[in-house]
Predict the structure.
Amino acid sequence: MSDSIVLDSSSKKDNPPVKRQIHPGSGRRKPPVFAKGRQLENKAQEEIKSLLGNKSRQRDLLIEHLHLIQDTFGSLSAGRLQALADEMKLPMAEVYEVASFYAHFDIVLDGETAPAEITVRVCESLSCEMAGAQDILKDLPAAVAKNVRVITAPCMGRCDCAPVAEVGHNHVEHATVEKITAVTENKDIHPAKVDYRDYDAYVADGGYKVLRECYEGKYDRDEIVDLLKNTGLRGLGGAGFPTGLKWSIIRQQPKPRLMAINGDEGEPGTFKDRHYLETDPHRFLEGMLIGAWVGEVEASYIYIRDEYPAVIKLLNKEIERIYAEGLNNGIKLDLRRGAGSYICGEESAMIESIEGKKGFPRHKPPFPSQVGLFGLPTLTNNIETVYWVRDLIEKGPDWFTSHGRNGRKGLRSFSVSGRVKNPGVKLAPAGITIKELIEEYCDGMVDGQEFKAYLPGGASGGILPASLGDIPLDFDTLQEHDCFIGSAAVIVLSNQDNIREVAMNLMRFFEDESCGQCTPCRTGTEKAVSLMEEETWDQDLLKELSTVMMDASICGLGQAAPNPLLSVMKHFPEEL
């Protein structure tokens, strides 16, 4: 891996060197100055009116309308932003602050040049960097045409196919300069078709039988809540809150209630939700609808990260079929598209984004179950959590709890990437060790490489040495080693990897993705990067900084960001 921040590709003057992209909403960029009394542009007004047509202008659709403008014109000009603000009856400052918060919106101010016709995003998160992303970033600008822009990007949820690039909305897996260049030359910018089990195939295999039985009165709502409690199912987005308890709490709240499904799995190393949505989406949809029925909610909002365009397309299609079949039972299903912000994986930041705002995490309490989306009690769940609901009801708690190793119960979906022969989503018993996972599910390490270390829970979960490879992987088993499993994003490292550089990659990710709301995280991650770039780490200062970040940050990003550097100091002192 390379420590380079600016990669030299000056051999081609038309394409400048690729620089690290600091998240636009991090609060580290100087805001623009708009001319006072700026007049609306007639052409921009006409364009926006025509583009929105009879679509609602309600406040929470701001991000959806920004996507529509970006998709149509390739960027967001100042004139069109002002026209949108006028059309939605919002202050220009509010529209701009939302648009500038998200990484996937390209704002073009007066006097600035619009971005190139085609944008190539090259993932530089850990698994892709291990697979050679920096070499691609170094060589690609000189290989592509003038109408192509090359920028860096955080994890795209395809770590098992590293390195990965995205040309427009078309992902190039196991990317090379030659493969990316060929896609840009063909202007193949749309997502590839996904071969998934559609509605008819799902129903033929017993799909929606449980949901229909719920509607028909075979099941009692509290009975399902008790069943989930007995299975021990916990939230699979990272926090691990007991699902049955969460469903029980929402039933105690006053009506009306809402539901919000979090499909913004931006943790480097995580891709399990994408896997399940691209293979068996109706199992997720049925589980979500059962949850909506149990919670007696009025609407369910599904928030999917913008890096998953194929998922967004297929879900829109299959939700239409659900409406046509009457399976929504009067519940509104609303799919919302993220815009490139890791922080929106935090439940309250997701709620803010669904409301059309910057993805700033909220202070808690109150919790979303009490005051959530649009101020109403909201049941929040991860994609995979509700994906298992149908199976748990059909097969019962004993089926789920019969799995497990080393005293643990249940199944876990491990997103495995890094130095293994066969990466991917591995459904394995809870409590399996990393050594067992590598040998039994991943066909061992890559030839010629020795197991050295691993990340049990993505960038946030810390780094453990191979000598601690016999710890059961599950909730609550890693805390004594100052790590956690989170969403079970396992990245395997070998003797070819420098753990200090690994930690640098992870901290730069947190620096880039800090939302900028609170000083401990915004300034702390930036300061941590600068201290870690020094030849000799000031360990006392880094520990003091870490304590401040963990104790004072508003949300889990700042609280967990120090984990990689603390892991290096604790478990890999010989590398400092």
In short: The radius of gyration is 23 Å.
